[in-house]
């Protein structure tokens, strides 16, 4: 099942030189774990709420690969180049399996809620 590293970043302007170095080197840390950028420096079209941050989404074959990438010495060496200059939040999350049905999940939540009352 696919997994994702999601960054909710708040870049400052102008960007620090370290951020450019981070961007130039990050792909080489992703390659051994099958990681690839799915969203990076994209224009966001906010439909609800307020979103002022930059969104980054990196896809991986699975959650283990995402964890191994984040914890790898190669990536950990780069983290300060970004984190020292761009505050934000980073999460790793598993995707849903092929054929996922939100209606079935709603039914399970409804049943669990009814049993809890």
Write the layout of secondary structure elements.
Elements: E1 3-9, H1 17-30, E2 36-39, E3 54-60, H2 63-71, H3 73-83, E4 88-94, H4 102-116
Antiparallel strand pairs: 1-3, 1-4, 2-3
Helix pairs in contact: 1-3
InterPro entries: Dimeric_a/b-barrel, DUF1330
Domain DUF1330: 2-96
Pfam families: DUF1330 (PF07045)
- How many alpha or pi helices? 4
The total beta strand count reads 4
Rg calculated over all Cα atoms: 17 Å
* Strand content bin: 15-25%
Q: Provide the number of structural domains.
A: 1
Determine the structural class based on helices, strands and strand pairing: alpha+beta
The ordered H/E elements are EHEEHHEH
How does the major sheet shape up? 4 strands, antiparallel
Share of helical residues: 40-55%
How far is the first residue's CA from the last residue's CA? Answer: 34 Å
Output mean pLDDT. Answer: 96
Broad shape: globular
Which oligomeric form is depicted?
single chain
CATH architectural designation: 2-Layer Sandwich
Q: Stretches where pLDDT falls below 50 for ≥5 residues?
A: none
Highest CATH level, the class:
Alpha Beta
Q: Spatial order of the strands in the main sheet? A: 2-3-1-4
* CATH domain topology: Alpha-Beta Plaits
């Amino acid at each position: 099942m696919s997994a994702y590293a999601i960054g909710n970043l708040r870049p400052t302007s102008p960007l620090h030189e370290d951020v450019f170095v981070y961007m130039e080197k990050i792909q080489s840390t992703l390659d051994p774990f099958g990681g690839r950028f799915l969203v990076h420096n994209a224009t966001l079209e906010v439909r609800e709420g307020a979103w002022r941050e930059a969104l980054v989404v990196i896809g991986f074959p699975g959650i283990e690969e995402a964890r191994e990438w984040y914890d790898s010495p190669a990536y950990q060496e780069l983290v300060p180049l970004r984190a020292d200059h761009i505050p934000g939040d980073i999460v790793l999350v598993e995707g849903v399996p092929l054929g996922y049905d939100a209606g079935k999940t709603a039914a399970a939540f409804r049943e669990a809620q009814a049993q809890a009352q």
